[in-house]
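User: I'm preparing a small set of examples for a lab meeting where we compare how different chains pack in three dimensions. I only have the primary sequence for this one, and I'd like the structure in token form so I can line it up with the others. Please keep the answer compact; I'll paste it straight into my notes.
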Amino acid sequence: MRTVEVSKTVQIPDDVEVTLDGLKITVKGPLGTLTRDFSKSPVSIELNSKSLKVWADWPRKKESALVGTICAHINNMITGVRKGFTYKLKIVFSHFPISVKVQGKTVIIENFAGERNPRKAKIIGDVKVKVAGDDIIVQGINIENVSQTAANIEQATKIRKKDPRVFLDGIYIYERREGMD
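Assistant: Understood. Below is the structure token output for the 181-residue chain.
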């Protein structure tokens, strides 16, 4: 038996401005602007003065799950334009000293496991990457771009053709948090 309606509400803080154009949501805040299009989703969105209602009429299982997913995306957008997101990665090596540089939209990892060719990781969107000692700090307002950039850096140093229990060298995510320093 299906339910008649599944709905959730997202509260909008005072320092954030949300506009709705069909199912395209734009969130403006102190750190910037994020836009996302939910027009392919079978849900309805309504903007009130300080809240956003997301609902689905006569939903199947997938559609009722989508209501919560879209609310989570909107909450992440609001948090991003208010505080931002920070991922910290640690450079770990025991055999060969790894050197990391940022050049444009790529992170270049040199001397990883003694390899001659540098490994490269792509920086997605408007994400800022800083190398501070043996830490790499990835910051931005879009959580998907920040987390994908951090994952690209971590995956670029994946050990192949060696025993991963012995060769623990690499770059690993050790902290995820809201807010930018």
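A couple of notes for your slides: The two ends are 50 Å apart (CA to CA). The longest helix spans residues 61-82.

User: Perfect, thanks.
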